[in-house]
Here is the input.
Amino acid sequence: MERLQKILANAGIGSRRHCEQLIATGHVTVNGKVVREMGVAVDPRESEVCYDGVPIREQKKVYYLLNKPRGFVCSNRDELGRPRAVDLLRDVPQRVYTVGRLDEDSEGLIIITNDGEFTNLLSHPRHGVPKTYHVEVDGRVERNSIKGSLGRGVWLSEGKTLPARVKVVRRGRNNTVLEVTLREGRNREVRRILAKLGFAVRSLKRVKIGWLSDPRLKPGRYRRLGKHEVARFFSFMKTQTASRSRLQVTK
Here is the structure.
């Protein structure tokens, strides 16, 4: 017996959180009956689970690293019909989705998979997986002028952000490129933080997820993650969780 949202995630429908939303909104049936309650457990070998009327089957787990170009959205459904990041992957038979999002105007590294457990671990705030961005802003920016604000956190509409790291990569006459590292993934967080501090963003590129980067991966191209890379992510997240637990005990 397995929880319904886990069965959906293992079939590549989406992250567990996304699958919970699909259940709550009536997209999932078990043996022909709509199930909206959370925590329902079923035997996938004995029950027919359908998503929008289509029976689901567990898939082989796959993991890809994509360098998303600007103009692509990180969604498997887009009412406006815009190009999707997942469409850049060719000859991938599994139903895959992005881990987290990069907005349409941003570019850079994003992981695409069909592993719901991996997605949940990588995107959950408690694991604090850092993501690093190169951000070009208008004007000449001195590091000290924003280091304090980002280091303390910035108040947004939904609350205060976690502390972020920042350094100046280079300065031009009318622009500055900053390297910003965050440990959470609020919607358009980098752009909103910098706008709150008075800096207009010209361009934004994610260059690292946790320890993972690939400067040779060109925009629009992707590669499969090796088994050792996936294992390292699981190990990294396990270590982060253990460190947080020890910190809470100490406090």
